[in-house]
Design goal:
heterodimer, A: 153 residues, mainly beta, 5-stranded mixed beta sheet, 11 strands, globular, B: 713 residues, alpha+beta, 6-stranded mixed beta sheet, 24 helices, 44% helix, disordered C terminus
């Protein structure tokens, strides 16, 4: 846990690793964290949708976050973790390498994303947090699932 | 939801039930049942609607129901003979009453009641004028005779009134509500309400249908006694009521100081009162009776005899039932997983564990069946809408129709029932409009002038079969062929069997009515009916005999929550194909499969060629087509009736699967209808056969284009 510095209301984030990068999402969006289980592949779906798994009777789509954010997608092992997140009315499983920490940050600690060319950075990264020399990107989950974009691709 | 809206909802729900009861009763009377029980049931239904409507100030409804009730009362008293004509009037009145209820519920517009009201008055014959005047007086002028009250002088200025109200069980039985009375009183001025619970027995002795509570209301109002009395107009005679002027006498003050009195009159907690009143009223509402009001103690003694007639029911939120169904689905999957694990562990079949598991399996099956039965409802709720429709269509077409329904008690899933209304409505209309001949034509053909449309339901091998049969002229095959040829649906010189000809009416763009009639025209034909039946996983067929009539037979699954499927393996994936679409399975021989260029292949099935679709390729699971000889082909019939063969690697077996939505957390996937969870806990996709057939036709094109692009680049 980190000390709360001045400025803004504190909120809690869950940070996790994807490849060599560290990311975080708002803890309020996270429903549960579970181990990797093999997914059933979905036809006609983008590469970053790994398929669907059975989450206590509900059919849960799994998004490979590495692939979604534009990194190389690694071979999944039993050590991978699925973060079950609530996005609007839907629940989605996010495939990440490992969950690392729970952070308490204030709005003042979140720096705006610098202008970069990457589309995925623009689409997902809501801000950057510098913490103990590490850079943690705050991710917005709104566009994680494919919507109409797929038809265009 | 605020309590009042909830009560209102309940009222309308009960209205629907009462209206159904009314119609059933009237139809039974029409069929000759004139026993007092049936007549009483009919009377009670109208009376309950009236009583409830009064509480909600639905004046039009009350007025009409009152007129209707007066007629029924005459019938009940034996002063009016329920002749066939009289019953027709009453059935029309029941329709108007239903319209009024719906208009009140949905805030709909004006309902024409005068014709029917006049008909009802006419039934009362010579006394009509008097009787009607009496009715008007009853409802228009609220003359009130206070019960057991000292004749106090009317106070023209602001006065304090003490109202003692002790409802009898009958008050609740007639669907009145104490809370609503209190609310009405509050409109008159400031009130202080004291609930007297001293009459309430211990729970063990409590008779749910008896009335134990009493209220004392102190009302400060400028209104006259008549205005107060008006509030109790509907419960007149069903409660002990005293209304006294309460001068500034010490009694009132002492009363107001009593601890249980509400702290401030203005802050009257209506919600709490309603909750209290409901607690007393609800069990009674479930089973209205019109027996003369007995004392509470005597009511208890009569209880068993009275309640044994109707089986007790409860209202449950559909969401809760669906949650239970989901959980039981989980249980079934879990049980299957457990069995598989035990089998894998190599435990002997005769061991205690394996035997216990067998018992568990049986139990889970039973639980699943029972839970599914909760959602199942008799088709009665759809069927009972049809007599009215038949009457209306008959009146419009000038035909004479008798609608006979059979198997109303046949149960099927609620969702199926809901989605059955439209196709059934359409089919009944068709049967009367197109199927039956006019009275003259019928008599000329030596048939009774009155045509019969038979609507029946029955369970047959795990499905529900619904038939709509008419005894009309049957399908005019020459005309059907001529029209089909004219619309370009068939070649003019096509040779068709009788069955094939009959089935032409299911084709899109076909309508046999030479002109668009008001009733079944509008360009929507049997193809729409067929499509909605197929959307429910059902099939529809027709059998027709010239001069004898036509029979439409629909076969539907009992539930939409589970599906009978063929579990197949395709490119390492487990998929489920709906069994309803599968005609047969084939073991393709290399010599039966022919290439049509590209990846397009056909397979010879008994001298006809049908397209062979590689499911793995169609879904993009593999790029190169499977060698047909190594796989299994499922011969399927798609929605339009077109045949195709789906090529899979292997068949695992036939299984009933629980349907899970993909859209809930993801979105629709082309070629996939839904998902399910198999015994190993993994998700398997259910194929959407029609899309696969359609996509594969277009996909051939896409693939060849892609290949050309790669070759060029």
């Amino acid at each position: 846990m980190t000390d709360i510095q001045n400025g803004g209301a504190a909120r809690e984030l869950i940070s996790f690793r994807v490849g060599a990068q560290e990311f975080c999402v708002d803890i309020m969006a996270v429903r549960e964290i579970r181990g990797w289980t093999a997914a059933t592949a979905l036809p006609q779906s983008p590469d970053y949708v790994r398929g669907v798994i059975n989450l206590r009777g509900a059919v849960l789509p799994i998004v490979d976050l590495a692939s979604r954010l534009g990194f190389a997608s690694a071979e999944t092992t039993a050590r991978h973790v699925i973060i079950v997140a609530q996005i609007g009315a839907q629940q989605v499983g996010l495939l990440v390498d490992a969950v690392s920490d729970i952070l308490t940050v204030t709005d003042a600690m979140v720096q705006p994303t610098p202008e970069v060319a990457s589309d995925s950075a623009k689409a997902f990264i809501r801000g950057l947090i510098a913490l103990d020399g590490r850079m943690i990107s705050l991710i917005g989950l709104d566009h994680v699932l494919p919507d109409l974009e797929l038809e265009a691709a | 939801m605020d309590p009042l809206a909830a009560i209102r909802d309940t009222f309308f729900q009960e209205c629907e039930e009462q209206l159904a009861e009314l119609e059933t009763g009237l139809l039974a009377m029409e069929a000759g049942a004139t026993d007092s029980e049936t007549i009483n049931a009919v009377f009670r239904a109208v009376h309950s609607v009236k009583g409830g409507a009064g509480a909600f100030s639905l004046d039009d409804l009350v007025r009409f129901a009152h007129g209707f009730e007066t007629v029924l009362d005459e019938v009940r008293a034996g002063r009016l003979e329920p002749t066939a004509d009289a019953l027709k009037v009453m059935l029309r009145a029941a329709d108007v009453l239903a319209d009024l209820v719906r208009a009140a519920r949905d805030g709909g517009g004006f309902v024409e009641t005068e014709t029917s009201a006049a008909e009802l008055r006419a039934l009362l014959g010579g006394e009509a004028g008097d009787d009607d005047a009496g009715a008007e007086e009853d409802w228009g002028d609220f003359a009130f005779t206070p019960l057991g009250v000292a004749d106090a002088a009317e106070a023209p200025t602001a006065g304090r009134w003490r109202i003692a109200l002790r409802p009898r069980a009958d008050l609740y039985a007639k669907a009145n509500e104490t809370a609503l009375l209190l609310r009405e009183l509050k409109r008159l001025g400031e009130i202080e309400v004291t609930l007297e619970t001293s009459g309430l027995p211990p729970l063990a002795d409590l008779d749910p249908e008896a009335a134990y509570l009493a209220w004392t209301i102190l009302l400060t109002t400028e209104r006259e006694r008549a205005a107060i009395a008006e509030v109790f107009d509907f419960v007149d005679g069903d409660c002990d009521l005293t209304i006294e002027q309460d001068g500034a006498d010490p009694l009132a003050d002492a009363f107001a100081d009593e601890p249980p009195a509400p702290e401030a009159a203005a802050d009257l907690d209506i919600a709490a009162l309603i909750a209290k009143a409901q607690a007393a009223a609800e069990p009674v509402e479930a089973e209205p009776r019109s027996a003369p009001a007995p004392e509470a103690s005597r009511a208890r003694a009569q209880e068993p005899a009275a309640s044994s007639a109707a089986s007790p029911t409860i209202r449950v939120d559909l969401e809760r039932v669906d949650r239970l169904i989901d959980l039981v689905g989980e249980l079934v999957i879990n049980q299957a997983m457990l069995s598989q694990r035990v089998l894998e562990a190599g435990i002997a079949r005769a061991s205690g564990v394996a035997m216990g598991l067998d018992e568990l399996e049986q139990l889970t099956r039973e639980i699943q069946d029972s839970v599914m039965a909760i959602r199942a409802q008799p088709v009665k709720s759809v069927f009972q809408r049809m007599p009215r429709l038949a009457r209306e269509v008959a009146a419009l077409t000038g035909k004479q129709v008798r609608l006979v329904t059979e198997g109303e008690g046949t149960e099927v899933d609620k969702t199926v029932i809901e989605r059955l209304t439209d196709p059934l409505t359409h089919m009944i209309r068709n049967a009367i409009d197109h199927g039956l001949e006019g009275p003259e034509a019928r008599e000329a053909a030596g048939k009774p002038a009155e045509g019969v449309v038979r609507l029946s339901a029955a369970h047959r091998s795990g499905r529900i079969v619904i038939e709509v049969a008419d005894d009309g002229a049957g399908i005019n095959r020459e005309r059907v062929k001529a029209i089909a040829a004219e619309r370009g649906l068939i070649a003019p010189d096509a040779v068709l069997s009788d069955e094939e000809t009959d089935n032409l009416i299911f084709m899109a763009g076909f309508s046999t009515a030479s002109e668009v009639s008001d009733i079944s025209g509008r360009g929507v034909g049997m193809d729409v009916v067929r499509r909605s039946i197929q959307a429910l996983g059902g099939r529809i067929s027709i059998a027709s005999r010239p001069g004898k009539g036509s029979t439409f037979t629909m076969s539907l699954p009992l539930t939409l929550a589970v599906l009978d499927g063929m579990v197949v393996t395709v490119a390492g994936q487990t998929l489920v194909a709906p069994l309803t679409a599968i005609v047969e399975t084939l073991q393709p021989k290399a010599c039966d499969v022919h290439s049509l260029g590209g990846d397009a292949r056909v397979i010879a099935v008994r001298d006809s060629y049908v397209p062979l679709i590689d499911v793995g390729q169609a879904l993009g699971y593999r790029a190169t087509p499977l060698d047909a000889a190594t796989g299994v082909a499922l011969l399927i019939e798609s929605e339009g009736g077109a045949r195709a063969a789906l090529l899979a690697d292997d068949i695992q077996g036939q299984r009933q699967v629980v349907i899970k939505s993909l859209e809930a957390n993801y979105r629709q996937v082309p070629g996939v209808a839904a998902a399910t969870i198999l015994g190993d806990g993994r998700v398997a996709l259910i194929l959407d056969i029609d899309t696969i057939v359609a996509v594969s036709r277009g996909a051939d094109l896409a693939r060849s284009e892609r290949r050309m692009a790669t070759a060029a680049g």
